[in-house]
From TrEMBL:
Keywords: 2Fe-2S, Iron, Iron-sulfur, Metal-binding, Oxidoreductase. GO terms for molecular function: 2 iron, 2 sulfur cluster binding; metal ion binding; oxidoreductase activity. It comes from the Bacteria. This is 2Fe-2S iron-sulfur cluster binding domain-containing protein. Residues 2-78 form the 2Fe-2S ferredoxin-type domain. It holds the Pfam family Fer2_2. Transmembrane segments: none annotated. The keyword RNA-binding does not apply. Residues 200-220 are annotated as: Disordered. InterPro entries: 2Fe-2S-bd, 2Fe-2S-bd_dom_sf, 2Fe-2S_ferredoxin-like_sf, 2Fe-2S_ferredoxin-type, 2Fe2S_fd_BS, Beta-grasp_dom_sf, CO_DH_gsu, Diverse_Oxidoreductases. PROSITE patterns: 2FE2S_FER_1, 2FE2S_FER_2. Gene3D superfamilies: 3.10.20.30, 3.30.530.20, [2Fe-2S]-binding domain.
Length: 405
């Protein structure tokens, strides 16, 4: 046994440890910092990577006693770190994590790349990440996340990050700022919710007059954002009247069925098939309309009964007049998936697939609106060939890759 004096995440600790105790075991067992994951315990997988004096090390093959007087930073110690704040957001945006087991070590290595290699290209980033094994994502999202942070810092440098880079270049410890001491828990205070009819309502999402974009909740939450649009050979007033009829709109969207409707609230399901992936989400949605701006947001959520994946999204759209007998509908889709299907949600092929669905939806709208006025015949549910659509999207991508128009 020997006495160990060590600083972890800005706090000093003094412990008696067995000389053969590894740093990873000490962090997890003695200090209860379980964000550091242990897997191979041979220094191969990188899941246990932490900072020692600002440099990444494998905690599973580093003896705790060798860290006498050192400064250690684990994943729990990055709350005020300007680099990690950017990386965490980028990892979420680019879907750079799935099961999350490798993520603490992957983020630590990524932070080192940002500070040490500000001009790294994708090939160099992949080499630097090769010491961290991820068995889920295929590294595409991780690489994209790191590259996005590097690009943003090249375009607009951050003074706090530049200071950390300078320290690293001089061989000093580029440590994250010490987090504020946690405040003691003081309990909750009950508050009555206002039920007055005169209570002010939360402002509804409104479109941006300067950009002409549809109303969107993109700023209110995070997820995958896809934009598209289509033109319809009818006046803007006619198109808006049609788009406000949720049952008619559902009849134009392949796989969508409205089972019940009460005002602007609907319940139903939507079936999706993309190659080997198939899901049927049952849920509810609410339409928020702005008749003056001819814009609306359909907010919905649902769950797939088979995979138990959960989906939540906002479909924002705005109708603008192009001429007396022609209008355009701009669509902004913001969605997030949780569960087994989340791994499919951000791939480029899936996003192209959704854009093609938006275009096909526009054609269906034009066909439905062209039906004779006063017709009482029920509209048949829109159908499409998943294989045909998949092949058309794939062909379009291949043409782009090989320089086709």
């Amino acid at each position: 046994m020997s006495e160990l004096n060590i600083e972890v995440n800005g706090r000093r600790f003094k412990r008696d440890v067995v000389d053969r105790t590894h740093l990873g075991d000490f962090l997890r067992e003695d200090l209860r910092l379980t964000g550091t994951n242990l897997s191979c315990e041979h220094g191969v997988c990188g899941a246990c990577t932490v900072l020692v004096d600002g440099k990444p090390v494998r905690s599973c093959i580093t003896f705790a006693s060798a860290c006498e007087g050192r400064q250690v930073t684990t994943i729990e110690g990055y709350d005020n770190d300007p680099v990690m704040l950017r990386l965490r957001e980028a990892f979420n945006t680019h879907h750079a994590l799935q099961c999350g087991f490798c993520t603490p070590g992957m983020l630590t290595t990524s932070r080192d790349i940002i500070l040490r290699l500000p001009d790294a290209d994708e090939a160099r980033v992949r080499i630097e990440l090769s010491g961290n094994i991820c068995r889920c994502t295929g590294y595409q999202g991780i690489t994209a996340a790191v590259m996005s942070v590097l690009k943003a810092l090249r375009e607009q440098p951050d003074a706090a990050i530049e200071a950390l880079r300078e320290a690293a270049m001089q061989g000093k410890a580029a440590l994250p700022p010490v987090a504020d001491a946690p405040k003691p828990f003081t309990g909750f205070e009950a508050a009555a919710l206002s039920t007055s009819a005169n209570a002010p309502a939360a402002p509804a999402a409104t479109p941006s007059a300067s950009t002409g974009a549809p109303a969107s909740a993109a700023s209110a939450g995070k997820g995958t954002n896809i934009q598209g649009g289509f033109e319809v050979p009818f006046s803007a007033d006619q198109v808006w009247a049609f788009m406000a009829d949720l049952r008619a709109v559902a009849g134009c969207l392949p796989g969508a069925v409205i089972e019940s409707q009460e005002g602007d609230e609907v319940k139903g399901k939507i079936a999706i098939k993309f190659g080997p992936m198939a899901a049927a989400f049952n849920g509810a949605a609410t339409l928020e309309r702005d008749d003056a701006a001819k814009s609306a947001v359909l907010r919905g959520s649902g769950q797939d009964s088979l995979s138990q994946s959960r989906a939540k999204g906002d479909v924002s759209y705005r109708v603008t007049s192009l001429s007396d007998d022609k209008a355009r509908v701009d669509v902004d889709l913001l969605y997030s998936l949780q569960g087994p299907l989340a791994q499919f949600s951000r791939s480029g092929l899936v996003q192209d697939f959704v854009k093609r669905m938006i275009a096909d939806f526009g054609r269906n709208v034009a066909l439905r609106m062209a039906q004779p006025a006063g017709s009482t015949e029920p509209l048949p549910q829109a159908e499409f060939s998943p294989f045909k659509m998949f092949m058309s999207v794939l062909w379009a991508r291949l043409k782009r890759v090989f320089g086709g128009q």
